[in-house]
Amino acid sequence: MLFSPMDSERFSLRIGKTAISGLEAARGLMHAAKEEQIELMIARCPVDEVAAIHQLETNGFELMDTLIYLARSVSAVEIQTHGEKVRQAVAADADAVEGVARSSFANYVGHYHADSRLPRDAADRIYPDWARRCVLVPSVADCVLVYEHHSVVAGFAALKLLSADCCDGMLFSVAPDYQKKGIFRALLQASCSWAAKQGVKEMEYSTQLRNIPALRGVMESGFLIKKAAHTFHCWTGNKQ
């Protein structure tokens, strides 16, 4: 099933999403999209699957962004934390967390923003909505940590356990007024500490290739590049 209900509702289009594992998957994607009447197909493909990438481009897919995945081992003994300022979010923090995401991602260019055929206002709502759901919907995130500065939520980290061995730092955000104050690093350290307490061995973080400040920050915190993937969009011409 390619159909993405949330994306389709957000943009009022029939949108499909998939992860491409190799050439055969890329070859069969357009046929599958046609069967499901997908209007916009979004595909993520590892950067080393060159033949699959070329097949996607031949089929009309266009590059929208490149994600860099980084990881580090975690140990409760070696991670420094800022326990007095970082705590686990509660439902009452949802508005504040959403507000932090709205302000910090205001000029962010993800793969939705990179597609000029998608409305900018709808793309702008993606990260604030995701942040809010991380706090309120248990299935979205396993833990949301918030950093407080004088009782104000200045930043947050949403974490998801991918397996018994790996935790994903899937969404981090620091409000513009509080950036460059060490809050991002403090949230990274607290996230690694939380992950270690859950018994996992590895913490993973991903961001766009163009997001140099975040890449620099996580690498300074001991993360190393693990893999990378391209995100492609294709407007299929299919109609519902």
Automatic annotation (TrEMBL):
<keyword id="KW-0808">Transferase</keyword>
<dbReference type="InterPro" id="IPR000182">
    <property type="entry name" value="GNAT_dom"/>
</dbReference>
<dbReference type="InterPro" id="IPR016181">
    <property type="entry name" value="Acyl_CoA_acyltransferase"/>
</dbReference>
<protein>
    <submittedName>
        <fullName>Acetyltransferase (GNAT) family protein</fullName>
    </submittedName>
</protein>
<feature type="domain" description="N-acetyltransferase">
    <location>
        <begin position="84"/>
        <end position="240"/>
    </location>
</feature>
<dbReference type="GO" id="GO:0016747">
    <property type="term" value="F:acyltransferase activity, transferring groups other than amino-acyl groups"/>
</dbReference>
<dbReference type="Pfam" id="PF00583">
    <property type="entry name" value="Acetyltransf_1"/>
</dbReference>
